[in-house]
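Input chain follows. Return structure tokens only.
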Amino acid sequence: MRSEPASVEVARRVARAWARCCGLPGDLVDAFLIVVSELCTNAVLHGRCDVYEVRGWIPAAGELRLEVHDKTPSAIPEPQQPGAGVESGRGLLLVDALVAEFGGSWGFTEDGTCAWCTFSLPGQGR
């Protein structure tokens, strides 16, 4: 995807269609789309490349995996808790909460080029 703000909405639309084709329930689709938005937004804002890649698949029964590659080696970011008057900086906090709610995990590759998460699929180990 082109590394520009409009691409985040495109990623969300594609992710929504894919999640529905996979038979995900509505509450999991909603959480998944927020995670997609936050990780793609981070790639656009903090990546230093013209493009980023979004990949989603079901590698094993009971699990969904998402990866967002911005191809920009960087330090591994941590969730922040910005002050009440700050308008941004809560994305990874949202990712952490939503992924945990659905029995998953998340993180970054060692070189910081890829954010990833997994969700446990309901009825298959959740």
